[in-house]
Structure formats: structure tokens, C-alpha cells
Write a structure and sequence with these properties.
The structure holds two protein chains of two kinds. Chain A is an alpha/beta fold. Chain A has a domain of 141 residues: Rossmann fold (3-Layer(aba) Sandwich). Chain A is built from nine helices and six strands; from the N terminus they run H-H-H-E-H-E-E-H-E-H-E-H-E-H-H. In chain A, helix 6 crosses helix 7. Chain A is globular. Chain A starts with a helix and ends with a helix. In chain B, helix 7 packs across helix 10, helix 9 packs across helix 13 and helix 18 packs antiparallel against helix 19. Chain B has an eight-stranded mixed sheet with strand order 10-9-11-8-12-13-14-15, sandwiched between helices. Chain B is an alpha/beta fold. The longest helix of chain B is centred in the N-terminal third of the chain and has 27 residues. Chain B starts with a strand and ends with a helix. The chains are: A alpha/beta, B alpha/beta. Chain B: It comes from Coprinellus micaceus (Glistening ink-cap mushroom). Chain B: GO terms for molecular function: GTP binding; GTPase activity; signal recognition particle binding.
Chain lengths: 274, 659
């Protein structure tokens, strides 16, 4: 009895299995230059999904990682998975919880991120724009304050749930509608934040020197994403739900993805840019 | 009787869920689902120590499986007194893990991919969740029905003994569950035929069991002897014969699923599927698991034999691995630690957590809070594997610091300036006048409300805002004079900085003995008419137990509905912090809603004063944020107007954890 229960565990828990299985697999994927090469190579190839709660980060994640849109709840911890965009390209996707109390985990993964996707719910943005903008502000700030040795990840703003927006609008496609809406609201809210901090005296942090800067827009120019100093900001409309009208089946939808729905746009973009 | 039951991963992906009413179904798919609020308001904030969470008329109970990172949640109407929910959760947990462990492990591993090398592996397996959890619905139905019938029986009959025995049978498995889990894996090596046979046998047995349970409701239960006879007869009969008879009688409606499952078993082309089925058997009877771990391998025959053992045997067997693991622990655990496969148990954690609790209390964290926080930390750690040379101590410390960070991190914006400015610049209709932003300071006597109000006032003036101070402390002699002095000082300081001809700060006073609520109202109107940006309302200090005074305060809040209610508390406070805050919050909510101003208003934030007097014993900050869930907006740390600081969470966590 004594030895019995103990001996099975080594092969039972999966984490160990994966750890052990790593070294043999490396040569297939990367040139056999050892583990150091792996580490340096794996730096900065991740897609980081962040954004406020209920914006659909985990849904996008599950679509990318499992090709299913699984039902989701508020996340308690970070998910991380590897997806292959094309046969030769593997990308790590990290899904950081959006709850205000734990969204700080995002900064831990910034170093590995090549693309930082800020996921926004296009439907509720008009109601909670201020809160979303505050979150985005902290992210913009953490991007601009990265050490110069590090290339900051590309910022991507995903206007999620675009499908729910366009039910009644026929003119433009739903994703452009979502993008315009999100961009306008976020710019307005960020501008408000900029104005309120500009020239203001912030209360010092306890025991730390002042680290909070403005958004870096000099003078009185209102905040615009095009002029943001941290680089180009890309907007994409997405939807994690299977496309309507097409096959409702999960596998079917993968193929029959219409151009204005689903994650096709995101996938195309990722393939080009990662 | 349940409304909602769900099994999800901590990362947010729902593996399985079911709603029992249309309302619940609708709710569950929205973001207002009770499970979501449970996670947001209880789990993330570290309130895991509480037994149950209530929201919108739902009572929610949950349980964790830490090594597989699963959360099992059951929600039901709060008015129902469902006694079996805990047992149900435990049973679901055990069964679900036993049936689907390999799949779950693979799933969890796929959520922790660390580098691209893993990609090949995760890509290779196709993720068919529907198929993987096929069959779980039937099992769930069976388990639930069993519990509901038992509960009904318990209510009706006064024969408690047999019922309790039955409940025990089902509730004990969870306890041994952790220790036996790992053993499930070896059987993946079995060949498919064996698996298929096992599956068939188990299914039969399951079916038999379900039928039996269903039948029990009708029969009058005659004490424990009746219970024992069932398993006995079970073991004697050949499974096949029995099951067939039962299937026709009891489970005729479910024949299609059974046959489906059977065909799937034999085809065996889906690895996930095989695992699921295999586990399924393993799960059904705990007894076989215990024996299996003992000799490492086992054969089909043994297996079936084990499966048919009676419940008492099962419990005994299940407990064995636990006991036997104790003696060899010195070498075994050392080895385990070296190989990084040590699983934390309640026993490992207890001494460390106790020490942590003592430590927290030394740092002036209120006792209840220290207890709850440590319990919560323990709950997230039990069953987790400690890797490499990491000691239990280090693991606990890390988890504790994470938990403290979560508790202290504000979940709402603490940017006062921004909210003031956005209120002042919000669009108004032409008839409306712009209302000033009002902030009320409340708290017990002598914590420094007026002093810190003047510091906040100084800060606001520095930001170019015009501030009106309303002297609503009409009780303590000298209160108004104190504020007058502050206003005099501030007006000199403020005007120097910015060249505004208008007074940047004014005092609004009506002397002593008047109704504070009325004065506050007048002050806000005065502020509106004279274009002040902010009205700071100073209230009289009061003890939280003094109901008439608390009612008066609630009236002030209800009448004026200030934009922020800031509780001022001193950092010196220990256990009292909990009492103060809960009672202030409660009184404000209860009394202000009673007076008809819509739903009650609670405290919006805290200001912790006398911070400079406590060195690193900053536990009060933790106690306060834990109790209310609201952020600490400012910290007062000195005698001058500039001694106002914002809290840095990392600093506080560090101070609390430092020795």
C-alpha cells in the first residue's frame, strides 16, 4: 500500500508530462540551438488578450484555441494556449482576466507579447465608456513606459460582439460600425482623462515616487489614436459567436465564415502580422 | 428544486452547465448570472471562506478542485432550505473527476501552454467538448434524483438513521478523492477490449444502482439492514442479467443514449472518448480505487469484484491510501518534493496557515479577517502541486500575497478628480443648474474627519476647484471654529497659488444644535447658486452602535445623496475596524433606503488616517477593504495639509508580509 499510491502520480498529473515532453519536441519546431534560443525566440510571440470584464476575451480565446465558442464565465485566472495560424506558425494566446482586481496580471505578460489585443464590448461601450477608458489608459501607460530596450507590442483594439450591433443597421457593415463607435467613445473618454490630469496636482503615492504621466499628447491637442506616441493602433471588429445564417455547427462555421462576422478578420490580421 | 448547476474552469470556460428553469437559463447566459457575481464578488475578492453566497434571491454554493482548476457551482432559490446541496456538490465533484480526469487534465494543460513546443501536442487532439462530456447528463440526473429523493424521504419519514447512512455513502467519496485520483491514469494502458468490457459492466451496474435508488422511494426503508442488503444482492447477481431487467423496467426511456454509448465504446477511435468512459467506471465505485492504488495494476475481474463491494467496504478502502501514506511520508514526501509532485493537503497547510494568521494579526489585521483570508488561501491551495524545491511555506506566502493584492486593489475608479470634472462638465438641460460634487465624511469620534477633510480640500484647491465646506458637525463644541480656522488658512494658501479673485474656499455654517441634514442641503444649494465645484460635508463623529445618531446620518445621506460617502477610519484600529465599517455601511444602507430615497447607499470609499503612527502594522487597511470591498481613496499621514497620500497596494502588501 505504501509505495502504491505514490508511484502512479508521476505520470498521472499532466503538467509534469508536458514538461518532460518539451525537450524532445524543440528540435522539430526550432533550430536545435538549445533552450536559450527557445526562450529568446519565444519572447515576444504572444497575443495578449485583455480588456474589461464581459467583453468576450475568453470567448475569443476559446474560439482560437479550440475552434469552439464555449460558454464562459468571469475568469479567475489567466488562460494561455498555443494556436497555429498556419502550418509553420504557432502563436501563444494569453487571456488575462478583466476583473479590476486581477487585471494587473496583464503587465506580467507584456514582455512576451507581440500583439496586445484590447477587447471591448461594442454594445456596452456607450454605457461604461469611462471605465473602459480607464482600463485602456493604464494599458497605454504601461506600453509607453516599457524600457526602451524592449519593442512595445502592437496595440490592437478588438471591437467585439459586433454581430449584436448590426441587426438593424443596413448601411455599413457591422464591424465598421462597431469600430467607429468604439473609437469615438474611447477617444472622447481618454480626452476627458487627459484634460483632468493636465495641469492638475496628483496626490503622491505612498512611499513611491510619482510614476503617473499623462498620455503624452503635448499641448492642447485632443487625444487621438492616430497621434498616440506608442505606435499604430489597429481597430478590428470581431464576434466570437458563430456567424448567423451560416451553418450553426461549430465546425461548419469555421469554414463558412462571412467577412463581416466572426474572427476571420482577426485571424487574417494575425497571420499577416505575427 | 435547483436552479442552476455549472462546472467551469477557473479560466472562465464553462465545461458543463444546466439550468432548471427558463428564468435561470436566461439569467445564466447573461453576464448577471449568479455564478458570475459569485466569482466577481466572492471568489476574486478572497471571500472564499464563507460557506454560501447570496445574490438576487439565489443562494449559491461552490466547491473547488484545485489541481484541475475546476469550480463546481450550484445555485438555488434562497428561500429553499436544501440540505443536500453540499453533499451533491461533493458527489458531483468526485464523479466528474473520476469520469473525465484525463480529458480534464489535457484540457487544463492546454490552458497553460508555455511555449510553442507544446503546440503540436495540443493541436493533435481535437477538442470535442460535447462528445467528451457525453453521458455526464445522465449521471448528473441520477445523482441529483438520488439526493432529491433522499431529501424528500428525510422530510417525510422520521426514520433518520437509514437516511443518514445513505447520505454518508454518497458524501464520503469526495474526501478520498484527491488521494486516489492519480491512480486513474494507469488504466489508460489497458487494451480496448478490456475497456469496453469494463464500460459495459459498469454501465450495467450504474443502471442497476439508479433503478435501485429510484425504487427506494417507494419502499419503506427499514433501517440499515435494508441498506446493506442491496449491495449484497448486487454482488451476487451477474451484472448483465440484473442490468437488463432493470433497464427495461426503469430506464427504458434512456435506451438510445445507452446504445449510443456502447457503440462509441467499441469503436474506440476517439481517445478522449475512451478516457471519458474509462474514468466513468473508475468513478462509480470508490472501493476499487483504493485497492487498485495498492498494487498499481489490476485486472478486469478484480475490478468488477471491487465494484460490487458494499458501501462500507468502499469507504474503508477509500480511506486506506490516506492513512498508509502517513508513515512513509518522510522519505516519500522528500522524494516527491524532489520530483516536484508534492500535493498540498489540508494537514500540510494547517500549521503554515496558522502561523500566517498569527502573523497577520500581529500586523493589526482584525482577527476575523485574518481567519477568513487564511481560510480562503488554504482553500485555493489544497490539492495543488508544489513544484521543485518550493516549500509549503513559500507556496502559502505567495498565495497570500496574491490574495492580499486582490483584496486591496480597488475595483472602482479612485480617481476623484476625474469624477468631479466629469460631473461638472456633463451635459445638462438648460433649465437644470449644475450641481456641485458633494463628498460626505463619516466616521467615529476623533479619527480625524475634519483634519483630513481640510487636507482633501487643499488638494482640490490646488487643482483649481472651488470648494465649499459645510460644517454639519453641530454637536461637538469647537467643531465649527476648527473648520473656520482651516478655511482661513486654506484661503490664504490657495489664493496665493492661483490668481482667482473669487474665494476658492468658503465655509458654510449654521451654528450648533441644528439639523445636520438640513444644513447640508442648504450648503449644496448655496454651492450650486454660487458656482462651487465641490461641497465637502463634515459630519459629527458617532459611535456605530448609537442608533439615533446613525439614523440621523442616514437621513443626511438620503436627503442629499452625496456623490461620495467617505468613511474616515484610523490606522490604529484593530478588531474594531470590522465592527465600525460593517455597522456604518449597514446603517447607511438600511436607514437611507427606509426613508424612501430608492435603494440604500453604502460607503463609497475609505480614508485611513494616522497612517504615520503605525509603522508597518498596516493591517487596518486590509481589514477595511475586506469588509466593504471599497477602495481606500486616501491615506492621511501627518499634520500638514500636504500629508495626504494615495495608497500603493504593493507597498501595503509588502508591509503586511514583512517580518
Amino acid at each position: 500500500m505504501a509505495g502504491g499510491p505514490q508511484s502512479p502520480p508521476p505520470d498521472a498529473p499532466l503538467p509534469e508530462v508536458t514538461l518532460e515532453s518539451v525537450p524532445p519536441v524543440i528540435p522539430e519546431v526550432l533550430p536545435p540551438s538549445g533552450l536559450l534560443a527557445l526562450i529568446s525566440k519565444s519572447r515576444g510571440n504572444a497575443l495578449l488578450l485583455t480588456g474589461p470584464m464581459d467583453s468576450g476575451k475568453t470567448a475569443i480565446f476559446s474560439r482560437l484555441a479550440y475552434t469552439h465558442s464555449l460558454p464562459t464565465l468571469t475568469s479567475l485566472q489567466t488562460n494561455s494556449s498555443t494556436i497555429s495560424l498556419s502550418p509553420s506558425k504557432n502563436v501563444r494566446v494569453v487571456d488575462v482576466p478583466g476583473h479590476p482586481r486581477i487585471r494587473g496580471q496583464c503587465t506580467e505578460h507584456l514582455g512576451d507579447a507581440k500583439v496586445l489585443a484590447f477587447v471591448v464590448d461594442s454594445n456596452t461601450i456607450s454605457r461604461n465608456g469611462a471605465a473602459v477608458a480607464e482600463h485602456l489608459h493604464t494599458i497605454l501607460h504601461s506600453l509607453t513606459s516599457l524600457p526602451p530596450s524592449q519593442t512595445p507590442p502592437q496595440l490592437l483594439i478588438l471591437c467585439n460582439k459586433a454581430d449584436m450591433l448590426g441587426k438593424n443597421s443596413t448601411g455599413s457593415s457591422t464591424s465598421t460600425l462597431a469600430i467607429n463607435r468604439v473609437r469615438t467613445i474611447l477617444e472622447r473618454e481618454l480626452e476627458k482623462r487627459r484634460v483632468s490630469t493636465a495641469g492638475g496636482v496628483a496626490v503622491e503615492g505612498l512611499g513611491e515616487d510619482e510614476g503617473d504621466g499623462g498620455e503624452g499628447t503635448d499641448g492642447n491637442a485632443p487625444f487621438r489614436f492616430e497621434e498616440w506616441e506608442g505606435g499604430e493602433v489597429v481597430f478590428l471588429g470581431t464576434s466570437a459567436k458563430p456567424v448567423e445564417g451560416g451553418d450553426e455547427k461549430k465546425d461548419g462555421d469555421e469554414k463558412s465564415e462571412a467577412e463581416d462576422g466572426g474572427l476571420a478578420e482577426l485571424k487574417d490580421w494575425l497571420e499577416e502580422n505575427m | 428544486m435547483l436552479d442552476l448547476c455549472s462546472i467551469s474552469h477557473k479560466g472562465g470556460i464553462v465545461l458543463w452547465s444546466r439550468s432548471f428553469t427558463p428564468d435561470a437559463a436566461q439569467l445564466a447566459s447573461s453576464s448577471a448570472s449568479p455564478v458570475n457575481s459569485l466569482i466577481r464578488e466572492a471568489l476574486i475578492e478572497g471571500r472564499t471562506a464563507d460557506e454560501k453566497y447570496e445574490k438576487d434571491g439565489y443562494a449559491v454554493k461552490w466547491t473547488f478542485v484545485n489541481d484541475l482548476e475546476l469550480i463546481f457551482v450550484v445555485a438555488y432559490q434562497r428561500i429553499l432550505q436544501l440540505t443536500y446541496v453540499d453533499d451533491l456538490l461533493a458527489a458531483l465533484k468526485t464523479l466528474f473527476i473520476k469520469y473525465f480526469e484525463p480529458f480534464l487534465a489535457a484540457f487544463v494543460a492546454s490552458l497553460h501552454a508555455l511555449n510553442s513546443a507544446k503546440a503540436a501536442a495540443s493541436q493533435a487532439t481535437t477538442w470535442d467538448f460535447a462528445k467528451a462530456f457525453e453521458g455526464w447528463d445522465t449521471i448528473f440526473d441520477k445523482v441529483l434524483r438520488g439526493f432529491e429523493e433522499k431529501a424528500a424521504l428525510e422530510r417525510k419519514s422520521r426514520l433518520r438513521a437509514p437516511v443518514r447512512a445513505a447520505v454518508e455513502e454518497l458524501s464520503t467519496p469526495p474526501s478520498d478523492d484527491q488521494s486516489t485520483e492519480p491512480s486513474v491514469n494507469p488504466d489508460t494502458s489497458q487494451d480496448e477490449q478490456q475497456i469496453a468490457r469494463n464500460v459495459q459492466a459498469l454501465k450495467n451496474r450504474l443502471r442497476g444502482r439508479g433503478g435501485r435508488r429510484g425504487g427506494r422511494g417507494g419502499r419503506v426503508v427499514d433501517s440499515s439492514s435494508g441498506r446493506e442488503s442491496h449491495p449484497g444482492s448486487d454482488s451476487e447477481a451477474t451484472p448483465k442479467k440484473k442490468s437488463k431487467a432493470k433497464a427495461q423496467r426503469k430506464w427504458g426511456d434512456q435506451a438510445p443514449t445507452e446504445s449510443e454509448m456502447a457503440t462509441l465504446d467499441f469503436s474506440m477511435d476517439k481517445p478522449n472518448d475512451a478516457h471519458g468512459k474509462l474514468d466513468l467506471q473508475a468513478l462509480v465505485d470508490q472501493s476499487s480505487l483504493g485497492t487498485r492504488t495498492g498494487d498499481g495494476m489490476y485486472e478486469v475481474k478484480d475490478w468488477e469484484f471491487g465494484a460490487d463491494k458494499d458501501a462500507n467496504d468502499a469507504i474503508a478502502n477509500a480511506l486506506k491510501p490516506l492513512d498508509s501514506s502517513k508513515p512513509k511520508s518522510t522519505i516519500g514526501s522528500l522524494f516527491a518534493r524532489l520530483t516536484g509532485s508534492k500535493v498540498l493537503t489540508q494537514e500540510d497547510l494547517k500549521p503554515v496557515l496558522d502561523a500566517m494568521k498569527q502573523h497577520l494579526m500581529k500586523k493589526n489585521v482584525a482577527m476575523d479577517i485574518a481567519e477568513k483570508v487564511c481560510e480562503g488561501v488554504g482553500e485555493t491551495l489544497v490539492g495543488q502541486k508544489v513544484g521543485g524545491f518550493q516549500t509549503t511555506n513559500a507556496a502559502v506566502k505567495l498565495a497570500l500575497s496574491n490574495s492580499l493584492t486582490r483584496i486591496l486593489t480597488p475595483k472602482t475608479s479612485t480617481d476623484l478628480l476625474l469624477s468631479i470634472k466629469s460631473k461638472r462638465s456633463s451635459a445638462l438641460s438648460s433649465t437644470q443648474q449644475r450641481m456641485p460634487y458633494s463628498i460626505t465624511f463619516v466616521g467615529v469620534n476623533g479619527v480625524g474627519k475634519s483634519t483630513n477633510l481640510s487636507k482633501v480640500c487643499f488638494w482640490l484647491i490646488q487643482n483649481g476647484l472651488r470648494v465649499l465646506i459645510a460644517a454639519c458637525d453641530t454637536f461637538r463644541s469647537g467643531a465649527v471654529e476648527q473648520l473656520r480656522v482651516h478655511v482661513r488658512n486654506l484661503s490664504m494658501l490657495g489664493v496665493n497659488g492661483a490668481g482667482d479673485s473669487k474665494g476658492r474656499v468658503e465655509l458654510f455654517e449654521r451654528g450648533y444644535g441644528k439639523d445636520a441634514a438640513g444644513i447640508a442641503k442648504e450648503a449644496i444649494h448655496y454651492g450650486r447658486d454660487n458656482d462651487f465645484d465641490v461641497v465637502l460635508i463634515d459630519t459629527a463623529g458617532r459611535m456605530q452602535d448609537n442608533e439615533p445618531l446613525m439614523r440621523a446620518l442616514a437621513k443626511l445621506v438620503a436627503i442629499n445623496s452625496p456623490d461620495k460617502i467617505i468613511f474616515v477610519g484610523e490606522a490604529l484600529v484593530g478588531n474594531e475596524a470590522v465592527d465600525q465599517l460593517t455597522k456604518f455601511d449597514r446603517a447607511l444602507k438600511d436607514f437611507s433606503s427606509a426613508s424612501g430615497a430608492g435603494k440604500g447607499r453604502g460607503i463609497d470609499g475609505m480614508l485611513v488616517t494616522k497612517w504615520d503612527t503605525v509603522d508597518d502594522k498596516v493591517g487596518a487597511a486590509l481589514s477595511m477593504t475586506y469588509v466593504t470591498g471599497q477602495p481606500i481613496i486616501f491615506v492621511g499621514c501627518g499634520q500638514t495639509y500636504t500629508d495626504l497620500r494615495q495608497l500603493r497596494v504593493a507597498n501595503v502588501v509588502q508591509a503586511i508580509l514583512s517580518d
